[in-house]
Specification:
six-stranded antiparallel β-barrel, single chain, alpha+beta, elongated, 9 helices, Pdz3 Domain, Thrombin, subunit H
Length: about 475
């Protein structure tokens, strides 16, 4: 007879392993923000929680409701009596005072702040879905303040919950590095926009303003200057809502930029995603928020969300209207989780995607030089290996390690992959590696493949302008 299958008993190790595995999968103490490309997301729903409170008739009688507010008036037949008019003036003043007091009830405070989703007729076609999207994302958005030693306010930013550890009672906040960026008192308010990297007060005290009105201190865990992001750890004893990200973002897409003001009220700005050629001191991987509303200065570090409430980017410069796309954030956070740093090769160049050029220019390149994609070199850093290799402004980078490149976002993801693989092997930063690049030299109209030696670092990359001193006068 065939042997009967072995029956699992309560103390059987196999059963215990299965139970433990199931429990681990269902009840993980550490939870991370989700990315749509990483985990299939079910359709987002706005959950509403109601606390059912049943009051007895005795409780109602012990706390009677306020009387209805009635507006006083003078009957027509008494309008000529002076004492009636005097009593009316006194009653009207009392009525107005009571009305102002009752209008302060939170359910009637409807007009102190208005957003574009209240009555903007241009958004009528998306108003309902946009409202649900904003409310769905709102609980993951918090406000942060940084202070120097003398309690001087340094900066305010918004942030997103991206991780919670139930065992340690901690949560992780993703925010903009501008939260602790140093200000130069001798320069203009926005002088920092014209610098590649700046100084940071890493020891600044940071306060997180929680949505229930309480505050908590935050500890800096990691700062990445190139992508201008910072991670802070906060002690929390309640569940937080983790953000949901999606890599799906495209030019012309309807999006909303969210932030919070000093009162923790939401600030909502409608706009559209736009691809633009970056200005000189802007990073190549920036995306742009195009809108025609008043400027909002409450959302640096806040999310840019789509009509499903999912994060497509993080505002990293509220003045220049730029944001870091989620596809880059995804790579950055994944590397940080695995390596506790975000290593990236420094190429010593800045670029513009050919795709961003006017179609007339693209067609001319294709017709005359058989080129229709790649990255045009905009700047070459002084004394960099790229300069020594002969790369100049106007040249085109077509391939990186054998892979064709068409956008700067693709380039950044490739660089992060290269940096992550190199660090995983060598476990050291600031090491040199060779990257194989294919260059189309614009002045000589020829292609060349070269090895470019680069440094893998998690610092911000400075592009140094080529200059030289005039030490001798020139005479005609």
């Amino acid at each position: 007879m065939p042997k009967a299958g072995r029956r699992r008993t309560r103390g059987d190790p196999g059963t215990e392993r299965e139970t433990k595995k199931k429990k681990t999968a269902e009840d993980r103490p550490v939870k991370f923000a989700t990315f749509e490309s990483e985990i299939a997301q079910s359709e987002a729903k706005l959950d509403r929680v109601h606390d059912d409170v049943v009051e007895s008739s005795s409780e109602e009688s012990s706390d009677p409701p306020s009387p209805l507010l009635h507006r006083p008036y003078i009957p027509d037949e008494l309008a000529d009596r002076a004492n009636i008019r005097a009593a009316f003036r006194e009653a009207k003043a009392t009525y107005e005072a009571d009305r102002r007091c009752r209008s302060a009830v939170f359910t009637l405070d409807r007009y102190s702040s208005r957003s574009c989703l209240f009555d903007d007729p241009r958004l009528l076609h998306i108003r309902e879905s946009a409202k649900d999207a904003v409310l769905l994302a709102a609980n993951s958005i918090i406000s942060l303040s940084s202070y120097l030693d003398d309690d001087e306010l340094l900066n305010r930013c918004c942030g997103l919950w991206i991780k919670q550890d139930d065992e340690k009672n901690t949560a992780l906040v993703l925010t903009s590095a501008h939260l602790i960026r140093a200000k130069d008192p001798s320069s203009a308010r926005d002088q920092w926009m014209y610098e590649w990297t700046g100084e940071y007060h890493r020891d600044a005290s940071v306060t997180v303003h929680l949505l229930d009105g309480s505050t908590a201190s935050a500890t800096l865990i990691y700062l990445q200057e190139h992508y201008e992001i910072a991670l802070y750890e906060v002690v929390v004893y309640k569940p937080v809502q983790l953000s949901t990200f999606t890599d799906n973002v495209h030019s012309g897409q309807d999006v909303f930029r969210l932030g919070r003001d000093e009162s923790l009220d939401l600030r909502i700005t409608h706009g559209r995603v736009e691809y633009m050629i970056p200005h000189r001191y802007e990073r190549c991987h920036y995306m742009y928020f195009s809108h025609d509303e008043e400027e909002s200065l409450h959302d640096d570090g806040g999310p840019v969300i789509d009509l499903e409430g999912k994060v497509v980017g993080m505002v990293n410069n509220q003045i220049n209207e730029t944001f870091l796309p989620s596809s880059i954030l995804h790579k950055c956070l994944d590397l940080w989780r695995k390596l506790e740093c975000i290593p990236r090769p420094h190429l010593g160049m800045t670029f513009t995607s050919i795709k961003l050029l006017d179609p007339i220019c693209i067609e001319r390149m294709r017709r005359k030089h058989n080129i229709e994609s790649g990255l045009v070199v905009e700047e070459v850093s002084k004394e960099s290996n790229a300069e020594k290799l002969g790369i100049r402004k106007g040249d085109i980078i077509e391939c990186l390690n054998g892979e064709y490149i068409s956008t700067t976002t693709e380039l950044e993801k490739m660089l992060l992959d290269i940096g992550g693989n190199r660090f995983h092997q060598a476990k050291v930063l600031n090491a040199e590696i060779d990257i194989r690049i294919q260059i189309f030299r614009a002045t000589k109209l020829c292609r060349r493949a070269r090895n470019l030696t680069v440094i893998v670092s998690d610092c911000g990359e400075d592009i140094i302008e080529g200059t030289y001193p005039i030490t001798v006068g020139l005479w005609r």
